[in-house]
């Protein structure tokens, strides 16, 4: 009864058009909400309210993270050597996750999905209130909060997508994940803007932002309970049984290392993070060099900082806007046209072209345009594909192995890239040399994507 509900066991009709809206021959009449959502995704009768609630849930999760991220930066950069401590935190997070992932697996083996999410939400909420209390008492919490938030961020998002993977059949997930992901894009943008406005207009302190985030986290759990009740009523006997059964199975690391498909996804996660971080490093080097060229000397240090701040403000704004538009209008249609396996190759092909161009033309104007397109595709198409890869896996893989991959292996990618940058810098590697190295990694990424596609075909249709 814990087997995945794939298109083989739960077949469904394929939509016959996606422009201007999705439509399927013979489908049950939709509500006004579902007809509106069909302009963006293949939402069918009875699915609209839950899809909208899940979109709002991930929106609030991302918004809460950006509130906390603002608090984190204020805390860590206000202490001595804060910037250096940030660089070492990924390693600390990876070490802690070696204990957190098995503990989560142990908990998941003993309770159904909603109580599991309730317990973890309560633990994270209590942690936030404890940090707020310690801050109010004058305790220095910068480093532990920085490390804790790095785990909170990846863990809450991973658990949310594990829940949606468990909630929906493979066919539903393929159709609905792209629109649910719109909440991520909007939440990241809104949370960053809201945190900035709160700090500027109300002088809110980090402790206040932590309490607000705890309230948002609790609200998210309430919406998950509502969605679960709605979907369990609509589910077949298998879906209803799975909603009440503990997750079962081994711990996340054991699942990853015993299953070729999961292990390949873990390798993909490491490579994706290393390539993306390498691109950010190259971009940062070029921005810094341009700032030094335009405003050389100590007397112009403030102008340099303003140039860099203005560049990244514009850069992040364009990435978020393009990512949102891709998520809203392109991702659903791309998945319908290429399927999960085809869409798996979109980002690595873009990255291969980008770093090949950067290798021969390491110019800031070129690199910034290429990175905007690459990052926007990563946050939209690639993120949706990453979640959809778990649809044909077992329930224990969706919760436990996914938690291990989305948290530990992602941080492992960060640590690996930090080591590569340190080694390359010590050897005096140029921007073009870093780009050439990244081209090699991207070729490896494409090869791994090909293996995942082959394994995915074996698991589904």
Report on the architecture of this protein.
GO terms for molecular function: ATP binding; ATP:ADP antiporter activity. It comes from Luteitalea pratensis. It is found in: Membrane. The chain crosses the membrane at residues 49-68, 88-107, 114-137, 143-164, 176-197, 209-227, 261-287, 307-330, 342-370, 427-449. It is a multi-pass membrane protein. The chain is mostly helical. The chain has two domains: 45-233, Growth Hormone, Chain: A (Up-down Bundle); 250-460, Growth Hormone, Chain: A (Up-down Bundle), CATH 1.20.1250. The protein has 16 helices and no strands. Helix 5 packs across helix 15, helix 6 (170-180) runs antiparallel to helix 14 and helix 11 packs antiparallel against helix 12 (301-343). The longest helix has 43 residues, at 301-343. It is globular. The protein starts with 31 loop residues before the first helix and ends with a helix.
Descriptive keywords:
single chain; 461 residues; mainly alpha; Growth Hormone, Chain: A; 16 helices; 0% strand
Residue share in helix = over 70%
In CATH, what is the class of the largest domain? Mainly Alpha
Q: How large, in whole angstroms, is the Cα Rg?
A: 22 Å
The major pleated sheet works out as: none
Distance, first to last CA: 20 Å
Q: How many helices in DSSP terms?
A: 16
Subcellular location: Membrane
Keywords: ATP-binding, Membrane, Nucleotide-binding, Transmembrane, Transmembrane helix, Transport
Main location: membrane
Family: Belongs to the ADP/ATP translocase tlc family.
Note the topology.
Layout: H1 32-37, H2 48-76, H3 82-108, H4 113-136, H5 142-167, H6 170-180, H7 182-202, H8 206-234, H9 237-244, H10 252-258, H11 260-294, H12 301-343, H13 346-360, H14 364-388, H15 395-426, H16 431-459
Helix pairs in contact: 2-5, 2-7, 2-8, 3-5, 3-15, 4-5, 4-8, 5-15, 6-12, 6-14, 7-12, 10-11, 10-15, 11-12, 11-14, 11-15, 11-16, 12-14, 13-14, 13-16
GO cellular component, one term: membrane
Main location: membrane
Transmembrane segments: 49-68, 88-107, 114-137, 143-164, 176-197, 209-227, 261-287, 307-330, 342-370, 427-449
């Amino acid at each position: 009864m814990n087997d995945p509900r794939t298109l083989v066991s739960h077949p469904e009709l394929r939509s016959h058009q996606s422009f201007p809206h999705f439509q399927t021959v013979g489908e049950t009449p939709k509500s006004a909400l579902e007809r509106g959502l069909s302009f963006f995704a293949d939402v069918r009768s009875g699915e609209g309210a839950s899809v909208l609630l899940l979109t709002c849930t991930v929106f609030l999760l991302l918004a809460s993270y950006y509130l906390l991220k603002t608090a984190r930066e204020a805390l860590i950069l206000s202490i001595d050597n804060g910037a250096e401590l940030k660089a070492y935190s990924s390693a600390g997070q990876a070490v802690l996750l070696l204990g957190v992932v098995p503990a989560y697996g142990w908990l998941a083996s003993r309770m159904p999905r909603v109580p599991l999410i309730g317990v973890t939400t309560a633990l994270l909420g209590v942690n936030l209130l404890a940090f707020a209390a310690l801050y109010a008492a004058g305790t220095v919490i910068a480093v532990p909060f920085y490390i804790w938030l790095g785990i909170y961020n990846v863990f809450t998002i991973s658990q949310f997508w594990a829940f949606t993977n468990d909630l929906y059949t493979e066919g539903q997930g393929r159709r609905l994940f792209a629109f649910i992901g719109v909440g991520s894009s909007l939440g990241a943008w809104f949370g960053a803007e809201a945190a900035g406005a709160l700090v500027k207009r109300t002088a809110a302190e980090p402790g206040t932002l932590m309490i607000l985030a705890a309230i948002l986290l609790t609200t998210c759990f309430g919406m998950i309970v509502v969605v679960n009740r709605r979907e369990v009523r609509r589910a077949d006997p298998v879906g209803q049984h799975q909603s009440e059964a503990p997750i079962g199975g081994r711990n996340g690391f054991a699942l990853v290392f015993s299953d070729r498909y999961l292990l390949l996804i873990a390798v993909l996660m490491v490579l994706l993070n290393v390539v993306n971080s390498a691109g950010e490093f190259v971009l940062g080097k070029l921005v810094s060099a341009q700032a030094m060229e335009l405003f050389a000397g100590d007397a112009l240090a403030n102008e340099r900082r303003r140039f860099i701040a203005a560049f990244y403000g514009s850069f992040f704004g364009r990435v978020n806007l393009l990512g949102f538009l891709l998520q809203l209008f392109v991702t659903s249609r791309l998945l319908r046209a290429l399927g999960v396996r085809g869409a798996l190759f979109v980002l690595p092909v873009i990255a291969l072209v980008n770093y090949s161009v950067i290798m021969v033309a390491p110019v800031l104007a070129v690199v910034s345009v290429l990175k905007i397109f690459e990052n926007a595709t990563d946050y939209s198409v690639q993120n949706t594909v990453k979640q959809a890869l778990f649809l044909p896996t077992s329930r224990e893989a969706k919760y436990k192995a996914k938690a291990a991959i989305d948290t530990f292996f992602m941080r492992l990618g960060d640590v690996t890239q930090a080591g590569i940058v340190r080694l390359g810098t010590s050897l005096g590697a140029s921007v073009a040399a870093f780009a050439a190295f990244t081209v090699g990694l991207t070729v490896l990424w494409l090869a791994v994507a090909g293996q995942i596609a082959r394994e995915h075909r074996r698991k589904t249709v």
